[in-house]
Structure formats: C-alpha cells, structure tokens
Amino acid sequence: MIRTTDDGDLRVVTIDRPARRNALRPTDLDALEAAVTGADAPVVLLRGSGPAFCAGADLDSVTDLDDPEAFAKHGQRVADAVESAESVVVAGIDGAARGGGVELALACDVRVATPRATLGEPGVRLGLFGAWGGTVRLPRVVGEGHALEFSLSGRVVNADEALRMGLVSRIVDDPGEVAASMADNDHRSLRIVKERLRDRGNRDGRLEREAAGFAELHRANVDDIAASREK
C-alpha cells in the first residue's frame, strides 16, 4: 500500500506495509510511480512505514514469477520514473533498505539516512541481484570500487559507512526536515538545477542547456535578485 500526504510544497509518499518490511508487489510499484510522478509539489519525500525503509521486491511475488525479465523491466521503469520526475525526490532512509529498496533510493535525487538506517544488496546470497537499475546507478553514485564490493559481498552497511561511501549524503534525525528545507527554495530553480545535474548528454550540449536555464531563471527572478543585493 502506498500513502500520500500533501503538505503545501511537500508531498510525502509512504510505503505502508510494515508487516512485510515495506516489500513491494507489482501493484505497489505502479502506485508508487503514480504517487511520485503525479505530485504537484516541488519536493517529494519517499519513506517507509515502521522499522524499515523498503525491503525491496516482495519475495512471494518473486517466487511466483512467470516472466522474470518483465518483472525486472517493471521495476526499472518505476525507478526511471522516480529519477526523471519533475519534483525533487528525497529518500528518507529510516531503518532497513535492502535490494530493490536500495535501488529505489538510488533513483531518488537525494538520499538522507537516520542513525537507524542500514543498507544492503543481499541478492548474491539468494542467487539473484538487484535488477531495478542498481547495476547502472550504484557505480555512478559511489564509484565502481565501492559498488563492486558492496554488491558482491552482500553485506549490510550502517548509516555511518553509507555516508563514507557516498551512498547517502547526510545522517539526520528527521529526513522530513531536509525535504521541507529544499521545498522552501525557488521552485523553478529546483526543477532546472535537477534537469541540468541529471543531464547525461554530451558536455557541449549540457553547457548550452545550463546557460539557457540560467537565463530563464534570471529573466524570471531579476527583480528579486536586485532586491536581495540591496539588503
């Protein structure tokens, strides 16, 4: 079950299956995609209910798969949708994130952990691996060396080690405060900065789009910029 709460400029999306450590069935993936991409708020906080962030794919669903490749592509599509959402998406990792839960966090723009967070890719212990885009995003986020060791060992890291690896950017008591502080920023700036930082095109094209985005923001906010200078 996926719950959404809108509070002004912040949407909170909660994976609410605490009895299953917020493990995701195919229907949950679809609901999560709709909740994130359908947000009007400039910032979305993705979190889990209870003592876990997300345990990944529900193992009952994985066991009964008729088409494993289609299941993997389903998760990839949802992770891609989270990554490309217009809103800035913050993963608030409180408790356990495993497998697909880590992959969803990697698709978010920002990952913050509480001191209780633990993260792991245990797929190799089950004869599987994360296939919701994790093999692409993980080395991009933490570097190839950390990505290989983390994934091939199947071990679990705590919040402090995740911070040292670069898997999360901050350790905080309340991820909601981080998301809310981002929502206080200029909304158009958030969208354009996300677009530019997420751009995977060639360097020259990226620089052109960066300049165009700066010009768009300058034209829209020139009066506020001038007023700020005079303070």
Question: How many domains in all?
Answer: 2
Instruction: Tell me the β content.
Output: 15-25%
CATH class of the largest domain: Alpha Beta
Structural class: alpha/beta
| Largest beta sheet: strand ordering | 1-2-3-5-7-10
The CATH H-level homologous superfamily of the largest domain: 2-enoyl-CoA Hydratase, Chain A, domain 1
Family: Belongs to the enoyl-CoA hydratase/isomerase family.
Protein name: Enoyl-CoA hydratase
GO molecular function: enoyl-CoA hydratase activity
EC number: 4.2.1.17
List the main descriptive attributes of the protein structure presented here:
Enoyl-CoA_hyd/isom_CS; 231 residues; 2-enoyl-CoA Hydratase, Chain A, domain 1; lyase; EC 4.2.1.17; alpha/beta; ClpP/crotonase-like_dom_sf; enoyl-CoA hydratase activity; 2 domains; six-stranded mixed β-sheet; 52% helix
How would you characterize the overall build of this protein?
With 231 residues, the protein is of the alpha/beta class. It folds into two domains: 2-182, 2-enoyl-CoA Hydratase, Chain A, domain 1 (Alpha-Beta Complex), CATH 3.90.226; 199-230. The protein is built from eleven helices and ten strands. The protein has helices at 26-37, 59-63, 68-84, 100-107, 123-126, 134-142, 144-153, 159-165, 175-183, 187-198, 203-230; strands spanning 2-7, 10-15, 43-48, 52-54, 88-93, 96-98, 110-113, 118-120, 156-158, 170-171. Strands 1-2-3-5-7-10 form a six-stranded mixed sheet, with helices on both faces. Helix 4 (100-107) crosses helix 6 (134-142) and helix 10 runs antiparallel to helix 11 (203-230). The chain starts with a strand and ends with a helix. The mean pLDDT is 91. Its EC number is 4.2.1.17. Keywords: Lyase. InterPro entries: ClpP/crotonase-like_dom_sf, Enoyl-CoA_hyd/isom_CS, Enoyl-CoA_hydra/iso.
